[in-house]
C-alpha cells in the first residue's frame, strides 16, 4: 500500500474508531475480547482498504466489514484465529479506551441484545446508529423491505425480552 493510502486509512480509522468500539461492545462481554475484536476488525479493514472504491461511505463500508468480522469470528468460537501484524504506532494512531461508564444507561438494552441472533444484533446496531433502511439493507446485503420486516419483528422481540 502506498504511503498516501496508508495515511488516509489511518486518519479514517482514527476518526471513526467509535463505530468499531460499538461493534465490539455488541459482540463481546469483556475487555480482553473487546480489544482482540477491535484489533481483528482494524486488520480486516486495513487488508480490504486498497479495494475500497468509495461507492459507499467509509462508515457504511467499515460497518459491513466490522459486523462480518465479528459475526464470523464469534460463530467459529476458536482461539486460533490467524492475524496480521501491523504497527499502527508509527502513524500516531492511538487506541482510545472504551468508556464503559458512559454506556451504563444502555446496559439493559445490551443485555437484551445479547439474546438476539447475530444478524438481528447487526440490524439493531445499524438502526441505533440512525442508518436509514436503505443503508442498513446495503450494509447487510439484504433488501430494504426485508430490513424493515426484520426490524419490526426485532422490536416486538425486544419488547418481550425487556417487559416479560
UniProtKB/TrEMBL annotation:
GO terms for biological process: DNA-templated transcription initiation. It holds the Pfam family Sigma70_r4_2. Residues 12-78 form the RNA polymerase sigma-70 region domain. It comes from the Bacteria. Keywords: Sigma factor, Transcription, Transcription regulation. GO terms for molecular function: DNA binding; sigma factor activity. Residues 108-158 form the RNA polymerase sigma factor 70 region 4 type domain. Signal peptide: none annotated. Belongs to the sigma-70 factor family. ECF subfamily. This is Sigma-70 family RNA polymerase sigma factor. It comes from Myroides pelagicus.
